[in-house]
From TrEMBL:
The protein's name: Vesicle transport protein USE1
Subcellular location: Endoplasmic reticulum membrane
Membrane topology reported for the UniProt record: Single-pass type IV membrane protein
Transmembrane regions: none
């Protein structure tokens, strides 16, 4: 059965969202959040269609949208350890979104975000900035002066 226009638009937007999620974004970036909201709406409309795709396909779309939504929620957490823990519970998609992908993009995004959060945790623990330089303003020890 040929894919409907709604399904094609859903797949296109899903690919775009996966690509945006793979990039390092500015914290003030709002587009991905809006796009994922639109994906949820499109998915609900797709489920309500009379000629909807197979249930396995819809489940895979749902898994990918839920993954993106969970990833956005994890990014809003404050500490790197909370982000890493939330990232562990995310389930990436099992099937590539397009035929050109060998590995599902959500799996790649999952691995990239895990590495990013691990790096953030390491820099928090070791007191280094993102370039690996020690942060000099964390601890300023003063020499102990003994009264004479």
């Amino acid at each position: 059965m040929a894919a409907s226009r709604l399904e094609l638009n859903l797949v296109r937007l899903l690919c775009r969202c996966e690509a945006m999620a793979a990039e390092k974004r500015d914290p003030d970036e709002w587009r991905l959040e809006k796009y994922v909201g639109a994906l949820e709406d499109m998915l609900q409309a797709l489920k309500a269609q009379a000629r909807k795709p197979a249930s396995e396909v819809i489940n895979e779309y749902s898994r990918k949208v839920d993954f993106l939504k969970g990833m956005l929620q994890a990014e809003k957490l404050t500490s790197a350890s909370e982000k890493a823990l939330a990232n562990q519970f995310l389930a990436p998609g099992r099937v590539p979104t397009t035929a050109r992908e060998r590995v599902p993009a959500t799996k790649t995004v999952h691995l990239q975000s895990r590495a990013r959060y691990t790096s953030e945790m390491r820099s928090e623990l070791l007191g280094t900035d993102s370039a690996g330089e020690p942060q000099l303003d964390l601890r300023k020890r003063t020499p102990c002066h003994t009264p004479s």
